[in-house]
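Long-time lurker, first post. I've been practising inverse folding by hand and with some scripts of my own, and I keep getting stuck on stretches where the structure tokens seem ambiguous. Below is the full token string for one chain I'm working on. Before anyone asks, I'm not after the true native sequence, just a reasonable design that respects the backbone. If someone could post their per-position residues I'd love to compare against what I wrote down in my notebook.
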């Protein structure tokens, strides 16, 4: 099959989307945090407004609960900020997808990953994600491809070697 090449630079939003997509694999953590966060916020707000004398001693606990529940929402931005400071992520990137695997060449690094290393792949409207397991992802922004036919060739090439999980 024909090799597909994508060239471009990562943007900060690309990293945030990739980290959020990586977190989609951990829904068991996301849903309880949303429920606890909404419950703590609602009970705390209503309690502080309606009956402040009863909740006065619980204010620190409610604040800590709210912070814990919102960590998951802010965590992708914090992680992306740390990754963005890494020189391997910044600068011009070139992705070459061929029958052997994916070759990523940056200004400061080069990596070659065989298709057998990828557990599954997924895509959204902005990027193509190749998961190396539950904790690692290689992603290619779609704007880096030459056009729609190049993206379609990429899909076909990946689908021939890696199982999909959308």
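-- Answer (accepted) --
I ran through it position by position. Result:
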């Amino acid at each position: 099959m024909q090799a597909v090449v994508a060239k471009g630079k990562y943007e900060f939003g690309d990293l945030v989307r990739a980290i959020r997509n990586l977190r989609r694999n951990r829904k068991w953590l996301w849903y309880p945090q949303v429920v606890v966060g909404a419950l703590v916020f609602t009970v705390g707000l209503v309690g502080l407004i309606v009956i402040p004398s009863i909740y006065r001693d619980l204010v620190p606990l409610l604040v800590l609960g709210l912070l814990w529940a919102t960590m998951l929402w802010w965590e992708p931005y914090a992680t992306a900020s740390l990754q963005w400071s890494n020189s391997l992520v910044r600068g011009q990137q070139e992705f070459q997808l061929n029958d052997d695997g994916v070759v990523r060449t940056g200004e400061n690094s080069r990596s070659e990953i065989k298709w057998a290393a990828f557990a599954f792949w997924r895509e959204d409207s902005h990027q193509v994600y190749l998961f190396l397991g539950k904790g690692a992802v290689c992603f290619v922004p779609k704007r880096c491809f030459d056009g729609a036919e190049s993206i379609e060739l990429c899909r076909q090439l990946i689908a021939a070697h890696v199982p999909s999980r959308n």
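A couple of notes from the structure itself: Residues 6 and 144 are 5 Å apart (CA to CA). The two ends are 24 Å apart (CA to CA). Happy to go over any region you disagree with.
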